[in-house]
UniProtKB/TrEMBL annotation:
Its EC number is 2.1.3.15. It catalyses: N(6)-carboxybiotinyl-L-lysyl-[protein] + acetyl-CoA = N(6)-biotinyl-L-lysyl-[protein] + malonyl-CoA. Acetyl-CoA carboxylase is a heterohexamer composed of biotin carboxyl carrier protein (AccB), biotin carboxylase (AccC) and two subunits each of ACCase subunit alpha (AccA) and ACCase subunit beta (AccD). One of its GO terms (molecular function) is carboxyl- or carbamoyltransferase activity. It comes from the Bacteria. Belongs to the AccA family. It comes from Planctomicrobium piriforme. GO terms for biological process: fatty acid biosynthetic process; malonyl-CoA biosynthetic process. It is an enzyme of class 2 (transferase). This is Acetyl-coenzyme A carboxylase carboxyl transferase subunit alpha. Residues 39-293 form the CoA carboxyltransferase C-terminal domain. It is found in: Cytoplasm. Keywords: ATP-binding, Cytoplasm, Fatty acid biosynthesis, Fatty acid metabolism, Lipid biosynthesis, Lipid metabolism, Nucleotide-binding, Transferase.
Length: 322
């Protein structure tokens, strides 16, 4: 994998890395050079930590969309074994924006539902930039019902800017199918673990997001609307996306505080795009722990807990003046 392209706030990090590379490339470094290398490595670690601990919401969106950020196919390769893809919705076609199939997580059989964006133009066109049509959500739901039939837990990896908003998708019942998925996922009587690995956009994410354990990577976001969409509505121009991002409160820290997610999975220093393998290790550990805990809960209690979990989201208190 090629070196990640620096984001604007990462440029001090990349500048220091170049200086470090130049020192390390010297064929016969002196004692002073070796000491400079050690000092610079310490400074680099400190700089990465300082920058990433102070990221604002709009900067987090940029990290979540980073071209080198690991996507679902990367995690399928690094986290799971024996992935056997299942195609089609038995009604219209095979939507490649959502990948489904049997997989193994260590010794545990799982049904994997994963949104895939793609990196280069060919991949993005194949996967429709991760924006699913109704047949994608129908495929996902059918595979979840298969998993329930054979008592196999379900893992959903969420990474989409939203469901596809085209005319054809609306004609084929986009809103209806997402709503149907919300209802039916609440009834699936096996453990469901959902993880937002990048973008969690609107109903497109929620269509595979009803789970017993909902987690999010530290520099991912989960929102009712994209910052650009919100800015276009409220300020009549997408250039105010940074202002919208601040208002939407969709970062992992916000979501954990509001009780919308159950866990924030930390990322390697400098973001997941810096170290795919380390990120995969952290994700795998989280998935194993979540499934271990959920496997101990009887099916009837599992459904009751899931229902109550989502009923609690969106509660508010009226002000004293009302």
């Amino acid at each position: 994998m090629s070196a990640p392209t620096p984001l604007s706030f990462e440029r001090p990090i990349f500048d220091l890395e170049k200086q470090l590379e130049a020192l390390e490339a010297q064929p016969s470094p002196t004692a002073a050079t070796k000491e400079s290398i050690r000092t610079m490595r310490t400074e680099l670690t400190k700089l990465r930590r300082e920058i990433y601990e102070q990221l604002g919401p709009w900067e987090i969106v940029q990290v979540a969309r980073h071209e080198s950020r690991p996507q679902s196919l990367d995690y399928i390769e690094l986290v799971f074994d024996e992935f056997v893809e299942l195609h089609g919705d038995k009604a219209f076609g095979d939507d490649r924006a959502i990948l489904t199939g049997f997989a193994k997580l260590d010794d545990r059989k799982v049904m994997l539902i994963a949104q895939q964006k793609g990196r280069n133009l060919d991949e993005r066109q194949e996967h429709n930039y991760g924006m699913a049509h109704p047949e994608g959500y129908r495929k996902a739901m059918a595979k979840m019902q298969t998993a329930a039939k054979y008592n196999i837990p379900i893992i959903c990896l969420i990474d989409t800017a939203g469901a596809y908003p085209g005319i054809q998708a609306e004609e084929r019942g986009q809103a209806y199918q997402i709503a149907l998925n919300l209802r039916e996922m609440s009834r699936v009587n096996v453990p469901i673990v959902c993880v937002v690995i990048g973008e969690g956009g609107s109903g497109g994410a929620l269509g595979i997001g009803i789970g017993d354990h909902v987690a999010i990577l530290r520099f991912a976001y989960y929102s009712v609307i994209s910052p650009e969409g919100c800015a276009s509505i409220l300020w009549k121009h997408a250039k105010h996306a940074d202002k919208a991002a601040n208002a939407l409160r969709f970062t992992s820290a916000d979501l954990l505080r509001f009780g919308i997610v159950d866990e924030v999975i930390d990322e390697p220093l400098g973001g997941a795009h810096r170290d795919h393998r380390r990120m995969a290790t952290l994700l795998k550990a989280s998935l194993n722990e979540a499934l271990r805990k959920l496997s101990e809960i009887p099916a009837d209690q599992l459904l009751d807990r899931r229902y109550e979990k989502f009923r609690r989201i969106g509660q508010f208190e009226e002000s004293a003046a009302s």
